Predict the structure of Catechol 2,3-dioxygenase.
Amino acid sequence: MKVTSLDHLVLTVADIPTTVAFYTEALGMAVEEFHPADGTTRFALKFGAQKINLHASGQEFEPKAAHVQPGSGDLCFLTEMPVADWLRHLQDKGHAIEEGPVSRTGATGPLLSIYLRDPDGNLIELSNRL
């Protein structure tokens, strides 16, 4: 028995439209609106073969994590775009870089990373494999 990959994760956010704007405009993700069998309307951010499902704080879907709150995430995204290009892109859009470029260790080896925060304060790491 073993797990083979991550399909999706959930972020609890203060405001879904604000979160969608950040991840689509700053990071180039696609937004998906979907309608599960329970009749609700939900939103996800898609990139590669993964997605991030969004839950509005106070309106989370069951089942959910034991201690949900906006800003508790720490996410690392891999990119083929050089970190230097990301720095220019994010600064041009008015997003502050919190740290980097710095060397880090990822799941499969060394990374060159920069850090910023999303609208809820989640730590976002953008990384190139070295």
User: Anything to note?
Assistant: The mean pLDDT is 97. The helical segments are 16-25, 83-92.
